[in-house]
Amino acid sequence: MNGQKIIYAAGGIVWRAAPYGREVLLILRPKHQDWTLPKGHIEDGESWDVAAQREVKEETGYDTVITDFAGFTAYRAKGKPKVVLFWHMEPVGECEFEPSDEVSHYEWVPARGAVDRLSYEKDKDLLRQFVTDDED
Fold it and tell me: What pLDDT digit, counting tens, does each position of 115-135 carry?
């Protein structure tokens, strides 16, 4: 073991009800041209859940309530191990989205379509666990 620093991050799978089933909130990152779930680094002294809600707010403009733990993804980023813990969340109130260099766009996508839209297999695998057969 070479003592590499692990990157710790947290994020949210944000759900809302729609007439045809559930929708999931995805973000588009212009730098990477990818669709992903809102997430980001944990700041010093911050708990995982607080970091997850802060990052969702920063990246989408939504305040949220956490409804459950969703799981985690682990992969290498910039040559370092990265672990991301995700929570199920629901939006509270109206969105105050401001496009930025980090996130240019967000979109509510039907749950099954969100699995297809996500750019990374680990994100798809995480979300796939929570999408039921009756969701289009």
Answer: 999 999 999 999 999 997 666
